[in-house]
Design brief:
4 domains, Alpha-Beta Plaits, globular, 31% helix, alpha+beta, Uridine Diphospho-n-acetylenolpyruvylglucosamine Reductase, domain 3, five-stranded antiparallel beta sheet, Uridine Diphospho-n-acetylenolpyruvylglucosamine Reductase, domain 2
Length: 466
Amino acid sequence: MNVATTPDRLLEALAGALGPAGLRTGAEIAARNCADAYGAAPTPPRAVALPRDTKGVSAVLRLCNAAGAPVVVQGGMTGLAMGAHPEPGEIALSLERMSGVEEVDRAASTLTALAGTPLEQVQQAAAEAGLMCGIDLGARGSCSIGGNVATNAGGNQVLRYGMARRNVLGLEVVQPDGTVLRGLNKMLKNNAGYDWTQLYIGSEGTLGVITRVVLGLHPRPEGVQTALCAVPDAASALELLGRLERRFGAGLQVFEAMWSEFLDLATGPLGLSRPFAEPPDLAVLVEVAMGPGEGATEAFAEGLGALLEEGVLADAVLAQSEQDRARLWAYRESPYEYGQLGRVGVNFDISIPRARMAEAVTGLRELRAAHWPGDPCGIFGHLADSNLHYIALIPPDEKNRQGSIDAAVYGLVRDLGGSVSAEHGIGKGKRDWLHYTRTPEELALMRQLKAALDPKGILNPGRVLR
């Protein structure tokens, strides 16, 4: 992109607007601002802008827009789609200093937070008010609520509480020219004209910069029971899902699937104990909120016992304590330990229609056997949400193989009528595969929206769309 002013003038103007601590250049730029979690080689941005408030974000965008200078928006840097990874010459707009929960409104069951607030801090503030944030994911300690909303993050509780989009009531957004849009709505019903906030949720920072978020909170679930269930295949897992939904209704909170390859990694090189005497092809982590009162554990065990007798389950391990619960969750969260295996993960976050999930797993296994048989892998995901994760673990010096692995896996996704991104977004990492999921007409509409809201194309250029 052509930069209209000299670097010195733009950087001087940014430093003047943000103060001495608000702009970093050269050796002052922290390593965290040079790469996100996608795994690409670090790239220092031209400068890092660190505003403390919405006024500062507005000033940065106004100056960069006037200069035609490209801006990459950064939050917790936990994204896996190369959305926050800078390119040479880009100004990195980091919201890390815009952190804090500003209000918890118990009457409205809402929480208002600055965009740079870590998700875990949001969850803690909700818990202190006796409520619950419906958004949860493994990177909760480092990801930011603004990034969660900008990518429409999913996670472990989507079955019960939905994606980030369903939890957002209001937003404050700064447009590329510095204009501030404030729609900090707290009401469940507000049908006054276009709901512009929906445009920015999941837009990955390409249309505007989210600076504040209003979340709807939920009652805290009570009597939560946890079990790890062994089933023979995906069809049986979906039968289990249906039976649990019919028996426990909205109490079903979690339904996480882990195939044998995944469990082999967790119980082999990662050292977790084997949960079952006979290793199943598929294990499902289940959590159900049984409600207040005594007898929750017994009622849950009775329900699973009936499913065991009917043959829906092959086996089950029930948590009897918080320590047991943490032990069962350790299997599901074992991918966070893959770094100790001395390999690089090629990560896939895909959606597959439920009815074709078994075909997808079979297809992934066939691709691995034919093309990368020596590489361990993990197959797991939020099965109830149609979300499948696949991680191929390749040697660090063979990163060049990622392109061929991408082509094979995304080709399978296209053939099964799935989506190349379930919850991680598109960024640059999946941009070239977006047409496998979206029609030409949909892509044309996306480009029209981008041109209308960011006519100079300064915001996150090259992410989502070329």
